[in-house]
Amino acid sequence: MSGMFVHNLRLGARSLRKNPVLTALMVMAIGFGVAASMITYAVFRAVSGDPIPQKSSQLFVPQIDNRGPQYNNGGEPPDALNYTDAVALMKAHQARRQTVLFAVRLSVLPEDARKAPFKVPGYAATGDFFPMFDVPFQYGSGWSAADDDAHAPVIVISRSLNQKLFGGANSVGKEIVLDDQQYRVVGVTETWDPKPRFFDMFSGHAYSEPSQVYIPFNRAMDLKIETAGNNNCGGGGKRGDDRESWLRGQCVWISPWVELSSATEVERYRQFLASYADDQRRAGRFNWAPNVRLRDVPGWLEYKHAVPPESRIALVVAVGFFVICLVNTIGLLLAKFMRRASEIGVRRALGASRADIYRQFLAEAGMVGLAGGLLGVVLTGVGMLGVGLVFEPEIAHLARLDLSLVSLALLVAIAATVLAAFYPTWRAAQVQPAWQLKSN
C-alpha cells in the first residue's frame, strides 16, 4: 500500500514538472487564498476566544440603573456602578467572592536615583480579585480581606515590573514608591493578560497594555487616586463641584464582579439586586422600577461587542477569496487532467482501474496543496506585518504565526485542494480507453 502511494507521488511530481507554469499558477492560487484566510483568522481567533474558560460561567457583572429610563441606552442600565452602589454591594457581601475595580495609572519612583520615574497601568481592586480571576503568581500572593479592611499600603506587581525594579528576584516584603506613596509588595504575578480583558470592558481597555500594579480599592480611595478609565455621568448625571459631590453623585466609573458557582446562587443574587434597587426607590433615591442585569463573561462580552465587527467582515471576505482561488484551481486541474486523456486511456487499457486514476490524481492534487500551503505560510508571515493597516494596533499585535496556525494552514491547503480535485479527477476517470486508442 505504501509502495503504491509513493509510486503515485512520483507520477504526480513528474506530471507537475512537465508544466511548471500551470503548476505555479495553482500553487499561487492556493497560497494566496490560504494566506488571506489565515491572517484574518489569526486576528479573529485572538479577539473571539474565551478569556477565562475555566470560570467564565461563574463570573458575573451586576448592573443597576441609577439614572432612570430617560437616560438609558435601549433600556439597559449603565455598564458600571457609581461609588454609592459599588460600596453598598460590597458591604452586603451576597456573593462568595466579589470585587470592585477601576483603572489607575501611577508613577513609579525607582530606588536608583539616576533613573527617571515612569508611569505604569494598573487597577485598584479588592483582595478577592486574584482568586476570582485565577491570577497566577510567581512570588507571594494577593492581599487578604483584613488588608482591605485596614486600608493597608500593600501592592501586587507584575513579573515584568518586578524584573525592571528588582532584577526578577523575589521582591515580597520589599517597598516601592508610587506617586510619592510607599507600598509593601505582597505578591508578584506571572505573565497574565487575558484577551479581551473581560473585567475592564467598561473603560475600553479590552486590548490595551498589560496591567503592572494592583493596589487595594480602599487605599486608593483614601489617597484620592483618580480613575484612569471611563467616568460616565450620562445625560442627566453631574460631575459635581468637588470630589465628595462626585463620589455621591450618579457618575459611573467602578466595575463590579461577583463569583457565583450555581444556578441557585445566580438567582439569589439577581433577586438581591432587584431588592436593593427597590429599596433605593422606596428611599426616594430612584423614582423608577428596579432595572438590573446580571451577565456572565460570555454574555458580557457579547453585550459589549468584544469582537470588532471589522474582524468578522475581514474573515468573511478572506474566506470568499479563498473559495474563488479554489474555483480557479478546479478549472486549472480540470484543464490539466483532461489534457492527459490519451495517457489515461493507455493506462486503463493496460489494466489500471478507475480507483488507480483517482489515487494518482488526488496524490498529485495533494502535492499542489502542500506546496500552496507552504507558500501560504510564508505569505501569512509576511502579511502579519501589515495587519496594523487594517486593525487597531492593540488588536493587530495579538495576531501571531504560531505552530497551531502553521499546522492549520497546511491542513486547510491540502484538504481543500484534494476536495477541489475530486470533480476534475472524476471527469478524467470517465475517459473511455477504446475511444482514446482509436483517436490516437
Automatic annotation (TrEMBL):
Membrane topology: Multi-pass membrane protein
Any one Gene Ontology molecular-function term assigned to this protein's record: transmembrane transporter activity
Pfam family, one: MacB_PCD
Keywords: Cell membrane, Membrane, Transmembrane, Transmembrane helix
Transmembrane residue ranges: 21-44, 313-335, 368-391, 403-423
The keyword Membrane is annotated on this UniProt entry: yes
Domain MacB-like periplasmic core span(s) in chain numbering: 23-222
Name this protein carries in UniProt: Putative ABC transport system permease protein
